[in-house]
Structure formats: structure tokens, C-alpha cells
Write a structure and sequence with these properties.
single chain; 230 residues; mainly alpha; 11 helices; 2 strands; elongated
Length: 230
């Protein structure tokens, strides 16, 4: 009789726990939908975190990390999905690691994940990012190869955003790749390639008259070529 009573209590307890968990899941699913409808990013993060505690899901973690990185919360994004390069990583997880590590000024680590993405789906956007990171890590030959790939495969409607001015602006991806190629060539040989680099910057500016960064770079190279006499 005593054993039977204990069994009944245990089963009742398990039933209540399951019922409570189901109710909590419904609550946070509804809360998530409401926060999403209201555009409340922090509310969405809170809801997804609770849902993942109640019902762990790698897909949910990946999405949560993507929201973090989209909000510039890069450390939180990496704390969510880690920084290791795993063969089982989803495309979203790999992209999060690439974006977050680049934003945290970790070009060597970021490059690993950009190259994984490029192997899966090569395109001019990724070629630009890889060339930029390889320039930072002084792999200039590799950077030039990536830019050359990008220039061959770029589409007319592709754009690249820049943020060095108070008002962000966009230029054509072809112009962006031409600008980057100019910098790479200049860094490969700052004497012999100076004129060629200026010529490429002229091409980039001709494509996009608002290309402020290309104009600044051109002015800097011309100052090196024609230093002012004191």
C-alpha cells in the first residue's frame, strides 16, 4: 500500500511538471510572437532564451546568436554559438562567427569562417570580405586573387556599404573591389605600383562619384607621390 501511494505521488508530480512545462512553452511562444510583432528585439531575445532553456534547440541558438550579431552584441553572439570551426555548424552559425570575429578585430579567426562560407557558396560579396581580411593579415597575394575572382563574378546590381562618414553610403560592388585592388597593389610595392593604384582609384571614383573612401585614398597616394615642399 505504501509503495502504491509513493508511485501515485510520483506519477502525479511528473504529470504536474509536464503540464507546467507545456504551459510555459505556450506562454513564451506567445510572448515571442508578441515581441516580434512589436519589433522589441530585447523581448525576442528574452523569449528565445527561455524557450531554449525549456526546449533546447541548436537552430534556436543559431537564430539567437544571429540576432545578437545583428545588434552589434558580438561577444554575446560568440558566447551563444562558440568560436570553434565545427563541421556540423549551420550556415547561420558560421556566418555569425565570421561577422562577430571581424567586428571584434580578429581577422585571422574571422577569415577561417569566411572561407568556409565561400567554399559552400562562392560569390563577389564573400570574395571582397576575404580579400579585405587577407590584406589585414598581410597575405597580399591571396587578397589579390580574391579580388580578381570578385571582379570576374560581380553583378551590376551588387552594392557595398561604407560607414566612415557620418552618413553611411553605398557604392557598386565592382567599384568597391576596384578600390580594394588598388590598395592591395600599392601595399605589394609602394613605389612601382603607386601610379597603377591611383589609376584604379580613379576608375572606382568614376563608377561612383560619392565614393569618399576611394577619394581619400587617392589623395593620400598623390601626397606620397608629390610631397609638398616646406
Amino acid at each position: 500500500m505504501k509503495k502504491l501511494l509513493c508511485l501515485v505521488v510520483l506519477m502525479t508530480s511528473m504529470s504536474i511538471t509536464a503540464q507546467t512545462k507545456t504551459e510555459l512553452l505556450k506562454h513564451f511562444e506567445g510572448y515571442y510572437k508578441q515581441m516580434k510583432d512589436q519589433g522589441d528585439v530585447q523581448g525576442v531575445i528574452n523569449a528565445m532564451t527561455h524557450l531554449n532553456v525549456l526546449q533546447p534547440s541548436q537552430q534556436r541558438l543559431d537564430t539567437l546568436a544571429y540576432i545578437y550579431v545583428s545588434e552589434g552584441r558580438n561577444l554575446e553572439a560568440l558566447n551563444t554559438v562558440g568560436i570553434d570551426n565545427n563541421a556540423t555548424d549551420s550556415n547561420i552559425s558560421t556566418e555569425v562567427k565570421a561577422l562577430a570575429l571581424k567586428a571584434l578585430n580578429q581577422p585571422k579567426r574571422a577569415l577561417v569562417f569566411y572561407e568556409v562560407l565561400f567554399k559552400k557558396a562562392p560569390n563577389a560579396y564573400l570574395a571582397y570580405e576575404i580579400a579585405d581580411l587577407k590584406t589585414q593579415t598581410q597575405d597580399l597575394a591571396g587578397a589579390k586573387a580574391s579580388v580578381d575572382y570578385g571582379l570576374v563574378n560581380v553583378k551590376d546590381d551588387m552594392k557595398k556599404a561604407y560607414y566612415e562618414t557620418q552618413q553611411p553610403y553605398e557604392v557598386s560592388m565592382k567599384g568597391a573591389l576596384t578600390y580594394l585592388k588598388a590598395l592591395i597593389l600599392f601595399n605589394m610595392n609602394k613605389t612601382d605600383n603607386l601610379d597603377q593604384a591611383v589609376g584604379l582609384l580613379d576608375q572606382a571614383i568614376a563608377m561612383d562619384a560619392n565614393f569618399n573612401l576611394a577619394q581619400i585614398s587617392k589623395d593620400a597616394l598623390l601626397a606620397i607621390k608629390n610631397p609638398k615642399k616646406e
